[in-house]
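User: I'm preparing a small set of examples for a lab meeting where we compare how different chains pack in three dimensions. I only have the primary sequence for this one, and I'd like the structure in token form so I can line it up with the others. Please keep the answer compact; I'll paste it straight into my notes.
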Amino acid sequence: MNKRIKKICSLATVLLMTTSSLSFAADGTIKKDETVYVNLSSAGEVEKIIVSDQIHSDVEGQKVVDSSSLTDIKNVKGEEKPSIDGENIVWELEGNDLFYQGNTDKEIPVEIKVNYYLDGSKIEPSELPGKSGKVKIELETINKEKHQTVINGETKDIYTPFMVASVVILPDDIFSNVEVNSGKIITEGNNQIVTYVSVPGLNELIPEDATDINIPEKLVIEADAEEFELGPIMSVATCELPKIDEEGDLGSISEMIDSADELESASSKLRDGTKTLSDGQTELADNLVKFRAGVVELGQGSTALIDGVSKLDLGIGSAYEGATKVAEGIRLFVDSAGEFGTGAKAFGAGATSFAEKAGEFANGATMLSNGLGKLTSSTKELETGAKTLTGGTDKLIAGEKQITTGVTASLKGVQSLIKAVKQQDPKSPMLATLKQIEAGLKAVEDGSNNMTNELNNFKKGQQKLTAGLGELGKGTDTIKETAGLLQAGSKGLVEGADKLSQSAVQLDTGAKKIVGGSKELVTGSQGVSDGLGKLSEGSKAIMAGKDKLVTGNKELLSATNQLVDGGNRLKDGAKELNVNMNRFHQEGIKELSSVLTEKTESLDDLLLVKDELVKLADEYNSFTGIGKDMEGSVKFIMKTEEIKKVKEAVVSTETEDKEKKGFINWIKGLFGK
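Assistant: Understood. Below is the structure token output for the 673-residue chain.
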């Protein structure tokens, strides 16, 4: 609070010293700026008051109705003459601005008191010129504009808030070892300039329990003086207060209270946060130790990994070669699968045809079985017939033998006859006939012999036939039995052929799928081969980076060790931070919040007082009066009489003349350096 008020005062000093007139806005409003020059004695008593007013209108030649208690009013910068009726003054402006002065004996709202001490004793200023020793100058400002107002049901004395800025110039050739209780000391050339800002009456508004607020009641200057002399002490007073709400960090008191609550809440959260941080940092440090163990294991694992990668690289190379061969084999398989499909299709057709033929075979087997039954019966009949035929053949052979014997006998008889004929008549015609008969009989004899031979052969054939028919009969029985089995087997053959035909269809379907799947297998196997090729390249890249991995593991372990050390230090720091933050919260923020809470009621009163001060400041816009439709401002410039040795009084007069010519400009220049 104390710093805040000091800051307000400092800002006010700057405003007072650098602002000598109103800023006129071009909104048509008539404004009046009043400056009250007050000559004071060396001790601060009022000796003379001169009031200077400036009237400004945005409209040239406007009629202005003013109000003033001044006497001896005169226009100091123009020819306009006022029309005065009591305190009502009417001006007919020729331009936009009018400057006039007048006199008054009205008591000024701020009293200046100056007390002087020499070597610890109070001394009249008239006795000081030329004296040397330890001097003390007390400058006190007193507010005379007191009002009574009711705040929260309590009547309080409140003062129009005049802010007074004072300047004391101490030449270096006279004053040394200068010290002040308040204000600032500025070194300017051969002088030390003491500036001091006060708000008289403000201390009476500060609650008694607000012990932290300490506004000095007066300015106290102490110095070593050699042949004492002192120029005028100049003070400027105004009630134009800086806009507190516009002063950035000043804020409002209520905002300060709210900020204190927020600060306590934030401090509590911060304390909780530091505890969480400490706990988390401890956990982090513990985990960092575990992490370091993991890094060590990682290093060991990376070594094993490198070995594994080496083997993997070899394995991948072999796998790549194998995959390439597999892909090639699969291509061949696919080609074969196509042929297989064609073969399977042909097999299916053959199986179908086989099934059909199997049916025919079954029918043939049935017919064979049936035929064999008849064949067996016929064979037996043939065997019987053959035996009968053999018997007949024996008879034929016997008859043939008789024929042969008869023909042989006949031939011998013919030959005997021929012989006899020849003997009787070699030319007998009968001889030729007998020759023909002889030749015929020989042919018959030969034929009969042949017949006998053929009959014998026939008989032998009949015997074999009979024997064969016997065997045939036995064979046909066996064949019949086998044919029965064949007939029964042919039924199974038909069923098997049907199943074979169905299987052939399924085989054809499967063959088609195999052909289609084999193409995908080719693509997949090629993909595997290509992937293994890339994997092989990758494994080679990994192999190339194994050295970096080893180096990286070493660097990681080194960095982890540093991290663990840092984590331990951070853990200790977090614990210390938590302890200190807890102490800060308990002994600082909570105590501050407690104090502010206890004084909330007083601060609320202060806020109401502040509002009243602002209101009084706004209302005090003139010292001698102002027209009702005018806006005004007023400031007081007060100057004490200088303290000089008698022989230097003339010089003082010259200085006063210079100050009269540019008193405000002199102050501006002084603070502008």
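A couple of notes for your slides: Confidence is low (pLDDT under 50) at residues 1-26, 246-250, 649-663, 667-673. The CA atoms of residues 404 and 449 lie 7 Å apart.

User: Perfect, thanks.
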